[in-house]
Amino acid sequence: MGHSDESSVPFLADLENEYTATEKSHISPLDNPRITKCSKKQTYFWISCMVIVTLLTNTATYLTTHQPLRNLDNVCAKHTSQTWSPILDNIDIEYKTVRFNGSLFTNTIYREEPSPEVDEAWHNLGMKYKAIIIPPEDAPKAGISLDHFRVDEKDGGPGYPAIVEVMHQLHCLNLLRQGLYYNSEYYHNLGEGPFKNEEYILKAHINHCLDTVRQSLMCSADTGAHPFLWAMSGDRVHLYPDFNRDHKCKNFNDIRQFAEKHQAPWREDGQLDVQPKEGEVILPAIP
To answer: Do the beta carbons of residue 185 and residue 138 sit within 8 Å?
Structure first.
């Protein structure tokens, strides 16, 4: 029998083909230089993305937790205001710690007996400031509608006159002080401001102010705590609340200065010589 080539034997040829296929199947893709280079690039890309995302996340967290306190104060002031005010955009609202004088017998000038000096101290708080003017384009975000009174250039406009809320609240508190039974005679005899009016109007005015202050206090709803102290009263010892407590207070003087600086150029008594224009809303009675 003649010698034959192994490759011509069918069985051996099948074994050789199977071996070759098995070897190829065990070749790693990483053994391919082109595939290895591409895989490394993808790995570096994803690692870089993870590093960048981590850095951005950490930076955002730091800025959020370490932003300047003043920014937080402004955010707080805007968040707790029902409507926009030019004060919020033009001064930096700051909250500062202030210890209240809650003493029963240690007076401030605001608690003294009626006098020109006491009245001047109250007036210097800004309660007699004239209105500021809200520009027409800002009126909607300030809660002002087209039905409200508007002035032209000659009266400080164009815009809508508006009283800064805290100034009205202080006016009301001062009127309550003036109307106290031990102060009212002095102011009746003086015959100025609300005390020029008839008694029923004065009473309505005082009642209006009383309820304004009530609503303001309930709206702000201070949640501070008053602890108690032992104190002598005559020859006896009593428990008495410690009203001399620290509070977080807005920078009132900056707010007052803004209201003072932006007063409308009206008469000293804050009045205008105007009449309703055609088409303006006229209410049937004082609200």
So the answer is: no
Contact call for residues 101 and 244 (beta carbons, < 8 A)? yes
SS3 of residue 197 by DSSP = coil
Cα distance between the two ends of the chain: 129
Kindly report the backbone phi and psi dihedral angles of residue 124, in degrees, each rounded to the nearest multiple of 5, phi listed first.
Answer: -70, -10
Q: Are 179 and 213 in contact (CB under 8 A)?
A: no
Residues 153-192 have pLDDT tens digits of 999 999 999 999 999 999 999 999 999 999 999 999 999 9
Q: What is the DSSP code (8-state) at residue 269?
A: T
- pLDDT for 15 equals 46
pLDDT in tens, 57-66: 887 777 666 5
> How distant, in Å, are the alpha carbons of 40, 58, 109 from that of 51?
16, 11, 62
Encoding tokens for residue 280? 């303006």
| Contact call for residues 129 and 169 (beta carbons, < 8 A) | no
- The per-residue DSSP string of 143-189 comes to T--TTS--B-GGGT-SBEEE--HHHHHHHHHHHHHHTSTTTHHHHHH
Q: Is the separation of the CB atoms in 132 and 161 below 8 Å?
A: yes
Q: Which two tokens stand for residue 32?
A: 């391919």
Tell me the sheet residues that pair with 241: 228
* Secondary structure element (H or E) that encloses residue 140, with its range: none
Q: Do 126 and 262 meet the contact criterion of CB atoms below 8 Å apart? A: no
d(CA 287, CA 208): 11
Residue 34 pLDDT level (bands cut at 50, 70, 90) = low
Distance separating alpha carbons of residues 105 and 236, to the nearest angstrom = 17
259, containing H or E segment: helix 252-261
Q: Report CA-CA distances (Å) from 116 to 122, 147, 164, 246.
A: 10, 40, 25, 31
At 34, the amino acid letter reads R
Structure tokens at 135: 């520009």
d(CA 201, CA 173) in angstroms, rounded, equals 17
